[in-house]
Amino acid sequence: MSGVRAAAPQLAGLEPYDPKYLPAEAFLSANENPTDVDAALRAEIVREIRKTALNRYPDPLANDLRDLIAEANGLDRDQVLVGNGGDELLFDLALAWGGPGRTFLNLPPTFSVYEANARLTNTAVAEVPRRADFSIDEEAVLARVAAGDIDFAIVTSPNNPTGERAPEDFVVRLLEATDALVMVDEAYFEFSRRTMRPYLESHENLIILRTFSKAFSLAGVRVGYVMGSPGVIRELVKVRQPYSVDALSQAVARVVFANRASFEPGIAAIIEERARLTDALRTLPGVTPFPSDANYVLFRMDAADEAWAHLYERGILVRDFSHAPGLEGCLRATVGTPDQNDALVAGLRDFVMGRCDLR
Ligand SMILES: *Cc1c(COP(=O)(O)O)cnc(C)c1O
């Protein structure tokens, strides 16, 4: 046979996820921690990895890591599930709660992976767009779930790429208005310091997503976790790839999680830099930063795509959302080191002033 029949129809028109990674001196595009795991922790990781059997399959459920996470959150092991990055768990959610004849409620603009997962799994997508200031249209969401056909929803808090938290009282009202499974994506929890964790006991339809990729400097390792009710976790276990979290990743994550307190000063520094960066952006004519509770700042400006290119020429890579629906004119910059943030502001100032001169 020459030629091959078409792939599954839901793939038509889907673009593969593209992080738009390009070589640069300052990577401010992927919301990573600008500081890698320090030497002392790295030495401990190496010791742990030396002890790891490579010829054996890993513990499928990463129970040692699960226990550490459960204990830290006052939960039992069966309320926690570890995945190959938060991304795997998002896909598992779509597999387990979506599918043909099922509906996912999305609140765009938000993390694009949610909608892609819904399409891959033939899940219908219902949307309640955010308002112009990116706040959630709470009454519209509650009205939409009242129709009764929503099977699962994702509320991102803080939202990526816009930066603001979902109000706690709204999430509670949503949990109480529906029996749909509501995921609160807390990928940036360590920077917002707010969590829906206290509502897990009272709300069986709540599930919380966290990751090691952002605050804990492990984007290269691929570990995330969810916390939810045992019944929900059991369903997710049915659809997951049995050995998705390899033995080395489990070892690295155990060491990092056990030593998570050592990341606190770095997290506090990023939170301070976030305020300094936001204030500096606000002083640039025509640049409007949105308040952020995460480790990135979204800002809107004229000729944002040209500004992106100007920054990139100077070795600074930020994320260009300027042509994304609802995010027109917006760029997102990860909070970097003080030097990187200064370089970003200087590059933007240069761009904005250059345009003023042209007028
Ligand atoms: C980064 C991120 C995740 C998970 O990332 P992983 O690296 O796969 O753990 C989940 N949700 C949001 C909103 C994110 O920004």
Break the fold down into its secondary structure elements and pairings.
Blueprint: E1 26-28, H1 39-50, H2 63-72, E2 80-83, H3 85-97, E3 103-106, H4 112-120, E4 124-127, H5 138-146, E5 152-156, H6 168-177, E6 181-185, H7 189-192, E7 206-211, E8 224-228, H8 230-239, H9 247-258, H10 264-282, E9 288-289, E10 296-300, H11 304-313, E11 316-320, E12 330-334, H12 338-358
Parallel strand pairs: 1-11, 3-4, 3-5, 5-6, 6-7
Antiparallel strand pairs: 2-8, 7-8, 9-10, 10-12, 11-12
Helix pairs in contact: 1-9, 2-9, 3-4, 3-8, 5-6, 10-12
Bound molecules: pyridoxal-5'-phosphate.
Pyridoxal-5'-phosphate is lined by residues 31, 85-87, 111, 156, 160, 185, 187, 211, 213-214, 219, 224.
